[in-house]
C-alpha cells in the first residue's frame, strides 16, 4: 500500500481541505503517514496570508527535495493558496516538484498524484532510468461547484468536534488581503448538503461543529433567498441546530457587513450556539478602516458587539487587529486601543501589517518601519493580555460545562476541552470514559490563558 504524507499550513479552512484530500487517498488504497521519510506522496497545503507562511512552505519543500535522490519515485505536491497564486513559477523554484493544485481543485489532487506515482512505479519496474522525473501537473483553474467537494471526513475514535466548510471565497477585497485572489468569489454549499454532512458527523458521535467560511455571515447571499426575514446563514444555523446529537455549534469568520438583527437574535434563540464569537475588527480607526476598504464604521462594530452581549450576556468576543497599517498614526492606533478597552475582548490576535504582493495596501504611501510596528504590537498585546488574563481569572472558582476533546496536546496524561466561551480547560480523567462528552468541571486555577480543574 502506498503511503501519503500531508502537511498543512495556515487556517482551519486549510485543515478542513487537507482532511478531504487525505480521505480521498485513504479511499484510493493509501495509508496515511506522519513520517515524510516513508511517504510515496508528499503534499503541502499552503497559506498566503503572510509572506512568512509562503517562505515556510517553500523552505520545507526545498528540504524535502534534498532527500529526493534516495527515493526518486516520491511524488511532491503543493496545494492551497500559495499554489493558487504562484502556479507554474513554483516548478522553476523547486525542480523536484510534480504537482501544483489550486484552491478549487482539491478534489483532483488524488487523481493527479496517483497517476504520476503509478506511472513511475510501473516504469521503474521496466526501466529504472524512466522512474525519474517527467510528468508535472499544474491546475489552478476555477471549477464550478468545487465548494461542494469539501464534504467528507476521516472517521476518528471518540471525535468530539468537527469543522464543516459551508462556503469558499470572498467578494470583499480588503486592501491588505490576498484571499479573494487565492480563494476566488464567494460560492456556498446548499443548506441540505451541509445538514446531511452534520447528520453524518452526529451519527459518528460528534457533539460540536464549527461552520467554516472566509465570510460566513454572508453565506449564500448571491445564491439563496432570505426567508421569513432571515438570511441564508441564519436559516443554515437553525437547520444545523435541529440536528439530533449535535449539542454545540460555532462559526468562523463573520464580517460586520451583513451582520444583521436576525443573526444577533440567533444568539438569543439558539441555545446550542456557543457563547463565543471570533469577530475580526482589524482597526478601531474609521480612517484606517476606510484605507483597508472595510466599509463599516467602528461605531457599527461596537454596536453589533453590544447588541450580541445584550442577548447573550456570557458571550466571549475575540478579534483580529492589524497594527502598523500604511499611514496609521499614533492617533489611529490609540483609537484601536480605545475600542479594545471599551469592548473588553476576551482575547485578540494582533498582527503587524505585512505587505502581500499584488494587494493595493502594498503600494500605499506611508509604509511604517518594523520598529514602529513592533512597538505598537507590544503595547496592544499588553492590553489584550491583561484583559484576557483577568477574564480567565474571573472563571476560577466556577463550574464550567466543558466538551472533552481527549488527551491534551501538551500533556497526554491529562485531558483537555473547551467551555462554550472557547476557553481551554485541562483536567484529569480517563479518555475512554470522558472523550466526546460534555462534563462539568470545577475550575481551580489558571495560568492566564489556560484553565485547570476537576471533573465533578
Ligand atoms: S473579508 Fe476577510 S477574507 Fe475577505 S478580503 Fe477581507 S480580510 Fe480577506
Tell me what the structure shows.
The chain is an alpha/beta fold. The chain has three domains: 3-139, Methylthiotransferase, N-terminal domain (Rossmann fold, 3-Layer(aba) Sandwich), CATH 3.40.50; 146-393, pyruvate-formate lyase- activating enzyme (Alpha-Beta Horseshoe), CATH 3.80.30; 399-455, OB fold (Dihydrolipoamide Acetyltransferase, E2P) (Beta Barrel), CATH 2.40.50. Helix content is 35%, strand content 20%. It has helices at 12-27, 51-66, 80-86, 89-93, 109-126, 179-183, 191-203, 232-241, 261-269, 286-291, 298-311, 330-343, 370-393, 431-434; strands spanning 3-8, 31-32, 41-46, 75-79, 99-101, 137-139, 161-165, 167-168, 187-188, 208-212, 248-252, 276-278, 316-323, 347-352, 399-407, 415-418, 424-427, 438-446, 451-455. A six-stranded parallel sheet has the order 2-1-3-4-5-6, with helices on both faces. The longest helix is centred in the last third of the chain and has 24 residues, at 370-393.
